[in-house]
């Protein structure tokens, strides 16, 4: 089998990977060829051994069955299956976790367990927790637990439901930009529009995303679908054979969208989770051939669907999930004969919120309410303006079109002649950063500069013998916010500045220091109340001894972290700083009390009688 460069590298490195790790994720973009890699791993390293492959969707299972059945004896597990596992076959495929006894027997005998779409693994959910616990307790000592995904992140407030608890590390196999350069994927070309009359501000997001029951009526009421069809009609004319996938929030949005598309004489169909497998396969085949130009999807095509000829993605679902955004856009990036790009029409403000999918960054841990920052639908654009190295400004076109709609296209300043809008050809734009007031009291770049300038300067001027003796008083008299600031300073002083080879190693270092700080707080009964948000300005205020952080706490905090500037290299201090910010955020969002019971810290172990 001919392997791509990144696949061959993983195959070459695989013996050393499994020697070092027992549970790990292989991360590669949608369309990179993870299924092929999994088949090759099985063939090269687990021939004639016992293997379990777990998927959550039948369509994913069908793909893996086709790939693995060529050379292996394969069986699909059903809910009714009983008896011993691996009798007469080597590979067990399952989307069903209900055959508990047989699956439990299989896990104890398996040499390898593969979990596709591993970002769906819930270490605290009933089904996967049972599997993970069984593997950890009863699995063969030399067995391996491998996850496959393009987006290793979960949106959850539950600290017992983090990917880090299921996997030891992430092996970053390939990135989108490298695969575009190799011709494996095509270049995404974004056409983002800001729909000004879509009001999401009043929608409750305590669940971690916009609830569909509230989101869908807001979409239908707005001009979002009109923007999508208008943009699509322009972009389709630029392609010899347009084939598109439309991602909608629910069936009500999909039906209105379908009707709008068909008004233009475009062949279109709807596919949902309720569409039968037979009908789904027929529709997707007609879509791949181009007989159906526009496939309108509700919760189906984001995973396990492969149509390399799809050259337009239309995103009609605002979300707070990077995973959903990345997965849906990735579906259009597969290469095909005659295809050199995929147009991404985004009328949901996901591009301005998260940024291009090829720039997305992932984290194994998410703090409580970490999704709240994405309520600012210009979150990513604000970060580009705030960047230390590149200050990209983005413009919003306000030109009124013949159809009485605003153009509302978003584009980068200085990218086009005279800054005219590439969609409508006029200049009627405003600076998004200024108009939306994205320049909050402090941004990440600003805090970074302030800390690295201010902390060593103040430390150098301090009488350390005075301030170092005031630790007990500083902590005891501190407010909740001041304790978070002191926690940041303590973290910066103590956390490792060594390079880490994986996301897992990074978080192991950060959480070990966080646990040490929590032990200090619990031992001295310095409790922190959970806070609704973590503001970077809190750390900046401490650097300046401002309104929130008083002089005692500010100077004692700087006395803790200042020595690092004399004993560590700039690169080490940079790594310490990044971890300290994460630790301070977790202290603020999770709080600290005598009841804390986290996977890496139990307050009961540190309470004094």
Keyphrases for this structure?
609 residues, alpha/beta
What is the rounded distance between the termini? 65 Å
- Spatial order of the strands in the main sheet? 3-4-2-5-6-1-7
Low-confidence stretches: none
Helix fraction, binned, reads 40-55%
Estimate the global geometry from the Cα principal axes: globular
Largest sheet: 7 strands, parallel
> Please, how many helices?
23
Overall average pLDDT: 89
Structural class: alpha/beta
Q: Into which percentage range does the β-strand content fall?
A: 5-15%
Radius of gyration (CA) equals 26 Å
The strand count comes to 18
What does this structure look like?
The protein has 609 residues and is an alpha/beta fold. 41% of the residues lie in helices and 12% in strands. The protein has 23 helices and 18 strands. It has a seven-stranded parallel beta sheet with strand order 3-4-2-5-6-1-7. Helix 10 links the parallel strand 10 and strand 11. Helix 15 packs parallel to helix 20. The longest helix has 21 residues. It is globular. The mean pLDDT is 89.
Question: Could you outline the blueprint of secondary structure elements for this entry?
Answer:
Layout lengths: L4 H16 L2 E5 L6 H12 L5 E4 L3 H12 L4 E3 L14 E4 L5 H10 L2 E5 L9 H13 L5 E6 L19 E4 L3 H7 L4 E6 L19 H10 L2 H13 L7 E4 L3 H12 L5 E5 L4 H13 L4 E5 L13 E4 L6 H9 L10 E6 L3 H5 L24 H8 L7 E4 L12 E3 L16 E3 H4 L8 H18 L2 H4 L3 H6 L3 H15 L8 H21 L13 H8 L6 H11 L2 H4 L2 H21 L6 E2 L2 E2 L7
Parallel strand pairs: 1-6, 1-7, 2-4, 2-5, 3-4, 5-6, 8-13, 9-11, 9-12, 10-11, 12-13
Antiparallel strand pairs: 14-15, 14-16, 17-18
Helix pairs in contact: 1-2, 4-5, 15-20, 15-21, 18-19, 18-21, 18-23, 19-23, 20-21
């Amino acid at each position: 089998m001919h392997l791509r460069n990144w696949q061959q590298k993983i195959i070459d490195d695989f013996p050393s990977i499994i020697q070092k790790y027992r549970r790990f994720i292989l991360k590669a973009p949608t369309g990179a060829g993870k299924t092929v890699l999994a088949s090759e791993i099985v063939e090269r390293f687990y021939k004639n051994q016992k293997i379990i492959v777990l998927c959550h969707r039948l369509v994913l299972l069908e793909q893996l069955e086709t790939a693995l059945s060529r050379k292996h004896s394969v069986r699909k597990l059903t809910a009714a299956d009983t008896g011993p596992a691996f009798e007469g076959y080597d590979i067990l495929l399952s989307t069903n976790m209900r055959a508990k006894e047989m699956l439990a027997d299989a896990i104890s005998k398996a040499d390898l367990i593969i979990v596709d779409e591993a970002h769906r693994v819930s270490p605290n959910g009933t089904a996967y927790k049972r599997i993970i616990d069984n593997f950890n307790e009863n699995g063969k000592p030399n067995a391996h637990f491998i996850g496959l995904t393009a987006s290793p992140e979960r949106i959850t407030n539950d600290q017992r439901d983090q990917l880090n608890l299921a996997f030891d590390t992430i092996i970053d196999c390939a990135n989108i930009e490298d695969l575009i350069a190799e011709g494996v994927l095509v270049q995404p070309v974004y056409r983002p529009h800001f729909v000004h009359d879509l009001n999401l501000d009043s929608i409750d997001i305590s669940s971690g995303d916009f609830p569909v029951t509230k989101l869908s009526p807001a979409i239908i009421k707005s001009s979002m679908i009109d923007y999508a069809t208008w943009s699509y009609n322009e972009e389709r004319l630029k392609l010899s054979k347009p084939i598109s996938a439309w991602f909608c929030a629910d069936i009500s949005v999909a039906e209105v969208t379908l009707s709008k598309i068909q008004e233009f004489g475009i062949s279109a169909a709807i596919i949902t989770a309720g569409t039968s497998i037979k009908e789904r396969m027929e529709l997707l085949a007609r879509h791949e051939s181009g007989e159906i130009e526009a496939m309108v999807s509700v919760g189906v095509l984001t995973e396990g669907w492969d149509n390399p000829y799809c050259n337009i993605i239309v995103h009609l679902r605002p979300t707070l999930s990077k995973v959903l955004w990345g997965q849906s856009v990735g579906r259009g990036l597969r290469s095909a004969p005659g295809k050199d790009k995929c147009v991404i029409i985004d009328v949901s403000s996901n591009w301005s919120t998260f940024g291009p999918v090829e720039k997305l960054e992932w984290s194994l841990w998410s703090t409580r309410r970490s999704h709240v920052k994405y309520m600012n639908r210009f979150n990513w654009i604000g970060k580009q303006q705030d960047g230390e190295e590149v200050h990209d400004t983005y413009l919003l076109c306000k030109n009124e079109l013949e159809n009485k709609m605003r153009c509302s296209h978003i584009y980068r300043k200085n990218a086009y002649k005279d800054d005219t809008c590439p969609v409508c050809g006029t200049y009627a734009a405003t600076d998004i950063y200024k108009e939306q007031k994205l320049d909050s009291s402090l941004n990440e770049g600003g805090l970074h500069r302030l800390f690295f300038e201010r902390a060593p300067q103040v430390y150098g001027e301090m009488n350390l013998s005075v301030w170092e003796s005031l630790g007990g008083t500083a902590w005891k008299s501190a407010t909740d916010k001041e304790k978070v600031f002191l926690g940041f300073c303590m973290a910066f002083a103590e956390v490792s500045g060594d390079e880490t080879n994986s996301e897992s190693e990074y978080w192991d270092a950060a959480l070990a220091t966080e646990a040490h700080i929590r032990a200090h707080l619990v031992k001295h009964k310095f409790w922190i109340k959970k806070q609704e948000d973590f503001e970077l300005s809190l750390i900046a205020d401490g650097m300046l001894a401002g309104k929130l952080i008083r002089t005692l706490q500010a100077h004692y905090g700087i006395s803790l972290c200042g020595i690092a500037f004399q004993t560590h290299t700039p690169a080490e201090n940079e790594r310490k700083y990044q971890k300290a910010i994460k630790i301070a955020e977790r202290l603020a969002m999770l709080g600290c009390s005598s009841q804390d019971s986290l996977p890496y810290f139990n307050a009961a172990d540190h309470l004094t009688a």
